[in-house]
Amino acid sequence: MLTAGEYVLYGGVGVCRITDFEEKSVESVDGTKTHEYCRLVPVFASNSVYYIPSAILESKVRGLLSKSQVMSIINNMPSTNSLKINDMKSKKSIFGSILRSGDYSQIVPMIKLLHDEKLQRMSNGKKLTFSDEKAMQDAEELLCQEFSMVLNIDKNDVPQYIENTLHSAV
């Protein structure tokens, strides 16, 4: 059971703090109905607020990873294969689903695929497509937000932390 004050990962939004639970009335054809909502405030964009029905909250958010889980993800990055996508037309929706899942076993391979694609396109004098660049930025932002909270470091220091950790393991 999630409680006020906890930090959670909310799909493609990022790390949020549960500030409280409140009753809200909603007008419908059947009359006014009252439902309990969870109020989420993004940690890295506090000017936004999300209200999630409490009845579906646990299907939309998850608790933050532990430090050992984050370190395991980092240590396994070199051996992680790039994501394979056969249907390039559905790539944007696949990336959206991966980001909403918050599953790093899919997010890290997605980042690897996009970095590889970026390097390949740059070698041909081209840029990554706008939607691919946006997906890569969103994936990196999601990873950096959660890792910074768990590791208690600045979000902007996460890439260097990962690099240092991987180089010290060699």
Write structural notes for this entry.
- The protein is α+β, with helices and mostly antiparallel strands and 170 residues long.
- It folds into 2 domains: 7-62, Thrombin, subunit H (Beta Barrel); 65-168, Methane Monooxygenase Hydroxylase, Chain G, domain 1 (Up-down Bundle), CATH 1.20.58.1290.
- Helices cover 46% and strands 22% of the residues.
- It contains 6 helices and 5 strands.
- It has helices at 57-60, 67-76, 91-101, 104-123, 130-151, 158-168; strands at residues 7-10, 14-28, 31-42, 50-53, 61-63.
- A 5-stranded antiparallel β-sheet has the order 4-3-2-1-5.
- A hairpin with a 3-residue loop joins strand 1 (7-10) and strand 2.
- Helix 3 (91-101) runs parallel beside helix 5.
- The termini are far apart.
- The mean pLDDT is 92.
Question: Looking at CATH, which topology of the largest domain would you report?
Answer: Methane Monooxygenase Hydroxylase, Chain G, domain 1
Helix-strand category: alpha+beta
Question: What is the averaged pLDDT score?
Answer: 92
SSE string, helices as H and strands as E: EEEEHEHHHHH
> How many helices in DSSP terms?
6
CATH superfamily of the largest domain: CarD-like, C-terminal domain
How many structural domains?
2
Which residues form runs of ≥5 with pLDDT under 50? none
Would you state the CATH class of the largest domain? Mainly Alpha
The end-to-end span amounts to 40 Å
The percent of residues in helical segments reads 40-55%
